[in-house]
Design a protein that fits this description.
Elements lengths: L10 H11 L9 H13 L3 E5 L2 H11 L7 E4 L6 H8 L3 E4 L11 H13 L6 E3 L10 H11 L2 E5 L7 E2 L2 E2 L8 E5 L12 E5 L2 H10 L4 E2 L2 H7 L7 E2 L10 H11 L2 H19 L5 E2 L6 E2 L5 E4 L6 H10 L15 H5 L8 H9 E4 L7 H14 L1
Parallel strand pairs: 2-3, 2-4, 4-5, 5-8
Antiparallel strand pairs: 1-9, 6-7, 6-13, 8-9, 10-11, 12-14, 14-15
The protein binds pyridoxal-5'-phosphate.
């Protein structure tokens, strides 16, 4: 089977993890801060907090921005459910902004219309969560401008997008956002098995997220002195969680960081190759914005006839090509339907979902395998 996505693990990765196993610390040792420093250095952001998943990162990002009961959060309907669930964990209300049919990302025009409407009704969101689908950056300048105009905070869900660039700067530098989150799940660009990170340029948000990932506990020197206590002393100020990353995960992440650029480079080469091979087929490609370089987490095409997607999908799978579909619109999930969302509410997202197909793309694929995928697709279509 040609997998749609797969991790790339080499001897350096294995040695790094094994070395941690015989070291003094399995958690809260030197690897986590070293991995965080590598992420900060790569993106140019001030603060990075490594956590046990991108879902956890989204949760503490929302909490740090003060999202709670009575607040609203908006995201894209074409995303993994975690982008929306994070708001619900905080007791907030979730809503969606329809996508741009060309990029599959949150549409800035739709966002502007929805914000103007919400402002009239005094129902503005506290936070919006644009998602860089496939690793293609959203139009962050437009989204950031609208957010500052209405006094709204922005969390970039860059789960797909580490290693990508927007306006010649690395995704994750938070130029147009308050917080940016990454995922290190094995199908993503680099992996720590499970893992994620939250990045920010705000020292207050970084401190809040650092507390929230570890039970809401702080151990500041000043407090120790004030309380005239010993080194055992700590204080819990918030209701936090245990969202910490282990040393094993961080060691793997740190080792993977040394190959981040080569992974993204290889993914771009393969995407270019796909684009050339696919010109002979009647497909529409989901393409990055001109002012960006995608990390190409996913290669998504739109099929000419939605009613043939099921057949094409099944026949490709029978030919040992693990095609996929990203994503079922979140508002169509039974849980979200129970919250009151209905079919037809986000028509661009629903149309997009009906004819998309994800083709295999990961650094381990050969050009020969790519040619096989395209040959199969041509036959099947
Ligand atoms: C993978 C993914 C997540 C969740 O990542 P985890 O690290 O598995 O928690 C969130 N949002 C998007 C868009 C994703 O693709």
């Amino acid at each position: 089977m040609i997998l749609y996505g797969q991790q790339s693990i080499n001897q350096q990765d294995i040695d790094s993890v094994v070395a941690v196993l015989t070291s003094d610390y399995l958690t809260q040792g030197p690897q986590v801060p070293a991995f965080e420093a590598a992420l900060s250095a790569f993106t140019g952001v001030q603060y990075t907090l490594a956590v046990n998943s991108a879902t956890s990162a989204l949760h503490i990002a929302c909490l740090a921005l003060g999202v709670g009961v009575g607040d609203r959060v908006w995201t894209s309907p074409i995303t993994f459910v975690a982008s929306a669930n994070a708001a619900l964990y905080c007791g907030a209300e979730i809503d969606f902004v329809d996508i741009d049919a060309i990029t599959g990302n949150m549409c800035p025009t739709q966002l502007a219309i929805k914000l103007a409407e919400a402002a009239k009704q005094d129902k503005l969101p506290k936070v919006i969560i644009p998602v860089h689908l496939c690793g293609h950056s959203c139009d962050m300048q437009a989204i950031g401008k609208l957010a500052s105009q209405y006094g709204i905070k922005v969390i970039e869900d860059a789960s797909h997008a580490i290693g990508g660039y927007y306006q010649s700067e690395p995704v994750g530098n938070c130029r147009y956002s308050d917080i940016c989150i990454f995922s290190f799940h094995p199908v993503k660009i680099i992996t720590t098995a499970e893992g994620g990170a939250a990045l920010t340029n705000s020292s207050e948000l970084a401190a809040a997220m650092a507390r929230l990932r570890s039970h809401g506990i702080t151990k500041l020197e000043a407090e120790l002195q004030r309380q005239d206590q010993g080194d055992w002393y700590y204080e819990q100020h918030d209701l936090g969680y245990n969202y910490r990353m282990t040393e094993l995960q961080a060691a793997l992440g740190l080792s993977q960081m040394t190959r981040l650029q080569s992974f993204v480079c290889r993914r771009n080469e393969l995407a270019t190759h796909y684009t050339q091979l696919l010109t002979r087929l009647p497909l529409t490609l989901i393409q990055p914005l001109a002012e960006s370089i995608s990390s190409y987490h996913l290669f998504v095409v739109r099929l000419p006839k939605a009613e043939q997607r099921r057949r094409i999908f099944d026949e490709m799978r029978a030919l040992n090509v693990q095609v996929h579909v990203h994503y079922i619109p979140v508002h169509l999930q039974p849980y979200y339907q129970n919250l009151g969302f209905t079919r037809g509410q986000f028509p661009q997202a629903e149309t997009f979902y009906n004819d998309i197909l994800t083709l295999p793309l990961h650094p381990g694929l050969s050009q020969k395998e790519l040619a096989y995928v395209v040959d199969c697709l041509e036959k099947v279509i």
